[in-house]
Specification:
Layout (H helix, E strand, L loop, with lengths): L4 E2 L20 H14 L4 E3 L9 E5 L12 E13 L3 E7 L2 E10 L2 E7 L5 E7 H14 L10 H15 L9 E2 L8
Parallel strand pairs: 1-9
Antiparallel strand pairs: 2-3, 3-4, 4-7, 5-6, 7-8
């Protein structure tokens, strides 16, 4: 099921998320729905806060659904902890499904060491480099209550203020279903 993506301005995007247990209700269905939602929006990553859940869960698929991509990096991260970020920071033009139509250069280190559980609750500790590391850092920031716009300089943030305000008010068009801060949640 395709879920609405929470837009910039919703308080859930600024929360430090809580860990979950293996018994979290409907976890496998949630993960499946998150992948479907991400692919529908042409994303390469999606964190639980972006669908309104303040839990430590995110997914990554650098091939964005292209099954033939030989460099594909597709994983589920539960209760992830970045242990180390190393290397010379590099800029890359990032976007975010919660902040449509805004892309900005963000500096990130090229290597991460991360510990996490996968969808089968197997514990992993691995080092990741390059673009997959960048996507992991972006999604990890979401579960820490940080958006890529928080990493921009003060002047750049001021220049984007009117666009960000428009997004939070729902004055934006996206090619996928979104939920804006002033909208009530459906039960």
């Amino acid at each position: 099921m395709k879920l609405p993506i929470v837009a910039y301005g919703d308080p859930v995007l600024k929360k430090v998320c809580t860990p979950i247990e293996e018994s979290y209700p409907g976890l496998q269905e949630l993960i499946s729905n998150m992948f479907e939602t991400m692919y529908n929006a042409s994303g390469v990553g999606l964190a639980a806060p972006q669908i309104g859940l303040p839990i430590r869960l995110f997914i990554v698929d650098t091939a964005a659904g292209d099954e033939k991509d030989k460099d594909r990096y597709k994983k589920v991260f539960i209760n992830a902890q970045i242990l180390e970020e190393t290397g010379e920071p590099w800029a890359f033009n990032e976007g975010c499904l919660s902040i449509p139509d805004i892309r900005e250069d963000v500096m990130r280190k090229p290597n991460v060491k991360i510990r996490y559980y996968d969808e089968n609750w197997k514990l992993h500790e691995e080092e990741v480099t390059g673009m997959p590391a960048r996507v992991i850092q972006h999604e990890y920031d979401h579960i820490e209550g940080t958006l890529f716009t928080d990493k921009l300089g003060l002047l750049r943030k001021r220049m984007l203020k009117s666009k960000l305000d428009a997004i939070s008010k729902g004055n934006i068009h996206a090619d996928y279903k979104m939920r804006f801060p002033n909208q009530k949640r459906r039960r």
